[in-house]
From TrEMBL:
<keyword id="KW-0472">Membrane</keyword>
<feature type="transmembrane region" description="Helical">
    <location>
        <begin position="28"/>
        <end position="47"/>
    </location>
</feature>
<dbReference type="InterPro" id="IPR007341">
    <property type="entry name" value="Transgly_assoc"/>
</dbReference>
<dbReference type="Pfam" id="PF04226">
    <property type="entry name" value="Transgly_assoc"/>
</dbReference>
<feature type="transmembrane region" description="Helical">
    <location>
        <begin position="6"/>
        <end position="21"/>
    </location>
</feature>
<feature type="transmembrane region" description="Helical">
    <location>
        <begin position="59"/>
        <end position="78"/>
    </location>
</feature>
<dbReference type="GO" id="GO:0005886">
    <property type="term" value="C:plasma membrane"/>
</dbReference>
<comment type="similarity">
    <text>Belongs to the UPF0410 family.</text>
</comment>
<protein>
    <submittedName>
        <fullName>Transglycosylase</fullName>
    </submittedName>
</protein>
<keyword id="KW-1003">Cell membrane</keyword>
<keyword id="KW-0812">Transmembrane</keyword>
<keyword id="KW-1133">Transmembrane helix</keyword>
Length: 82
């Protein structure tokens, strides 16, 4: 049940990040879910490095969305060059 909830939350976070980020991101629903999940991991690691989260603590909703926006920005830079 934990994996299913992680995929659902990742999908919601990915949708919100795509709605906030300007431009047209051509991604399917699987890539949107992966975007949200990776964004949550990025936010968790950045938060731990900055001292905002203790090790093992996950990022919250806002942190996950910010992490997904960072990943989406990097994805946009990489996909434009190829």
């Amino acid at each position: 049940m934990g994996i299913i909830s992680m995929i659902i939350v990742g999908f919601i976070v990915g949708l919100l990040a795509r709605a906030i980020m300007p431009g047209d991101q051509k991604m399917g629903w699987i890539m949107t879910a992966i975007l949200g999940i990776v964004g949550a991991f990025v936010a968790g690691y950045l938060g731990q490095a900055m001292g905002w989260y203790v090790p093992g603590e996950g990022a919250g909703w806002i942190g996950s969305i910010v992490g997904a926006i960072i990943v989406l920005f990097i994805y946009g830079l990489v996909s434009k060059k190829s």
